[in-house]
Specification:
Length: 115
């Protein structure tokens, strides 16, 4: 089992910034991919960004140039720096951890971008 705890969501004005964090604990693997997904009201959950344990990052086109994903393998943590936030970024953001045959999700943290 891998436990994921997200933090850092909240309310921010358009153009503002937020930083999300995810901490993994339990039966973690040395080779894994962590990522952020989001789900807006009435919509499907979609990929925001992922990063491998080797440091290779991948971003959705909608967030490229605005969001930056990073991780600390020693601490089993992952961050998402979100800049230039837009109302359409409003969603519940979920941390994901996968490796081998395992795939775990956090409970999610709400990000609301509104004036």
């Amino acid at each position: 089992q891998v436990q994921l705890v997200e933090s850092g969501g909240g309310l921010v004005q358009p153009g503002g910034s937020l930083r999300l964090s995810c901490a993994a604990s339990g039966s973690t693997l040395s080779i894994n991919t962590m990522g952020w997904y989001r789900q807006a009201p009435g919509k499907a959950r979609v990929l925001v960004a992922t990063i491998t344990s080797g440091g290779s990052a991948n971003y959705a086109d909608s967030v490229k140039g605005r969001f930056t994903i990073s991780r600390d393998n020693a601490k089993n943590t992952m961050d998402l720096q979100m800049n230039s936030l837009k109302p359409e970024d409003t969603a519940v953001y979920y941390c994901n951890y996968r490796g081998g045959l395992i795939n775990y999700w956090g409970k999610g943290t709400l990000v609301t971008v509104s004036s």
